Amino acid sequence: MQYRVPFVDPRAHYRNLKAEVDAAIMDCLTKGDLIMRQHLRDFEAHLASFVGVEHAVGVNSGYHALHFSLLAAGVGPGDEVITVGHTFVATVSAIVHCGATPVLVDVGRDYNLDPQFVEAKITARTKALLPVHLNGRVCEMDRILSIANEHGLAVIEDAAQTLGGSFNQKKAGSFGIAGCFSFYPFKILGGFGDGGAVTTNDAHLARTVRLLRYNGEDRETGEYHYHGYTALLDNVQAAVLDVKLRHLPQWIEHRRSIARLYREGLQGIGDLALPHFGEKSQFDVFQNYVVRTKQRDRLREHLKIAGIETLVHWPKPMWEHPGLGLSDPGLPETVRICQEVLSLPMSAETTPEHVSTTIQSIREFFD
Ligand SMILES: Cc1ncc(COP(=O)(O)O)c(C=O)c1O
Fold it and tell me: Could you tell me the pLDDT band of residue 115, with boundaries at 50, 70 and 90?
């Protein structure tokens, strides 16, 4: 179906960057630079500097960024890792694939880990906290770090949705021992395929992730240090991401201005709750613009008929998928969220006209 207001627009995105992106790809291809070459090293250096850490290591997905960070932090069988129930399944799968047990806690009204629920879940087996900065908003990292310090736990940030977001002027991915990013095409910084990265100030952790992503091999010496994986960020993807990273500050400002327009047009309508939670400490980058209403399904249908594309992240709690083998952790807010949230069109290509069409249609629905 062709939407009047698409959720994202990858063709327009490419058109707007064509000259720069084509040049970067051609540079890799003409040089024959495909695996672990200068483009990857450059992108890693630029990403580390953007996030404000010493090291960034490119991998082939946000999932692998999480999996490798957990392994490098020593998470393994018998350990427990505390994270949220309201997240993309990959956060939890990464814990499971380390042989550890995910312990799920509830989120607050801003969809992020509510620190008040964490301490009750800490046991002698707890090894790490895995806060997820959802929708472009950083968690309350001061409270999370203080709980972690008190109990001697590692903090690994799932920052897949929040590159560029900050808390008390410190960027997502720079708080814990590792920050995990995704460059899935529709992320705030998206490649032309899968990609991800780990950011860290810990040189040992960075080296471990570098070994894990390439079969455990130290490329300098040829020594295999352990059984690893094949999970590199491709050099061509890195070259494209490096081009796009230069545009990121401007895209973040664009997303924030689109969010302001939604806010102006949608305030005070019916039971619609908007994603503005006070910005004293947080700088939100609006990976997603998530509204909430008890009439979510009917509103979504109304918008679809009007040619406006929306998404639901996510329609049912992950423990209701029997294949995942998770027991019901009893998280009432996460359950309500699944019934009520709706993500409105939001990308670097979303225009003020798209927003006013969407606002008008939402107003019609509630009238
Ligand atoms: C919160 C969160 N964590 C992890 C991931 C996994 O990233 P990827 O799809 O690159 O593996 C995503 C991406 O969809 C995500 O949104």
Answer: very high
Crossing angle of helices 89-97 and 62-72, in 10° steps, is 40
* Pocket-testing residue among 66, 68, 182, 234, ligand 1, by greatest number of atoms within 8 A of Cβ: 182
Q: Which atom of ligand 1 lies at the shortest distance from residue 194's CA? A: 10
How many whole angstroms separate alpha carbon 303 and alpha carbon 299?
Answer: 6
Does residue 1 surpass a pLDDT of 80? no
Which residue, among 281, 7, 306, 299, has the nearest Cα to 144 in the 3D structure? 281
Q: What is the DSSP letter of 277?
A: -
Report the separation in Å between the CA atom of 89 and the middle of ligand 1, taken as the mean of its atom positions.
8
- Give 88 Cα–ligand 1 centroid separation in angstroms: 6
Instruction: Read off the tokens for 7.
Output: 């959720």
Using the predicted structure, report yes or no on whether residue 340 has a pLDDT greater than 80. yes
pLDDT tens for 29-80 read 999 999 999 999 999 999 999 999 999 999 999 999 999 999 999 999 999 9
Residue pLDDT, tens place only, 312-330: 999 999 999 999 999 999 9
Report if pTM > 0.85: yes
Residues whose beta carbon lies within 6 Å of some atom of ligand 1: 61-63, 87-88, 90-91, 132, 158, 160-161, 182, 184, 194, 196
Q: Which two tokens stand for residue 71?
A: 């392994």
| CA of 85 relative to ligand 1 center, distance in Å | 14
Rounded alpha-carbon distances, angstroms, from residue 236 to 25, 64, 86, 186, 346: 6, 18, 33, 18, 26
Q: What is the pLDDT of residue 241?
A: 98
Pull the structure tokens for residue 325: 């083998």
